[in-house]
Amino acid sequence: MKKITISSLAIIIAITSFSQEATKQGNILFEVGTTAFGENLIKHGASTGFNILSTDGSTLFSIGAEGGYFIQDNTALKFGLGYTDLDFTKFLTYKFGFKHYAGGNVPVQLDVTGATNEDQNSGFGSVDVPDPLWLGLQVGYAAFLADNISFEPTFRYNASLNKDYTDENIIEVRFNFVIFF
Fold it and tell me: Torsions phi, psi of 49, nearest 5?
């Protein structure tokens, strides 16, 4: 029993240990994952992650990814692109911001996420669908599965910057995989 406990602890430490080489200045990161779930996903509109949702007769599909360049050790300048198809409209999404790995395993991200609506006058009769714009703050934990791959469950708070789109702020739980080059 003692050997199993020590072995389990060693495996957990190995999996979650921080790879200092991954977040060195000059490195690149590539990130894919999920975004909001449920009704929050439809409310958000702007996604750089993978999602599929069908509710109340509407179906939403989104796909996207994010990339970044480490401008200094542990701090990356990030950007993202995505596409969302909702029954009544389609969005092309963009994101830019910073991601910092505090203490090596705690990614903290601050960014702006927006989208341009391809179908300005569809689905709502004569009412235009405005473009969403969000200020996001995200914090999580980076579990390094290898020297250059991490799994990052995160919590995210999105504050609406376009009250014409929505005046509601959204909290999300995300699950991301990050590859470092």
Answer: -125, -175
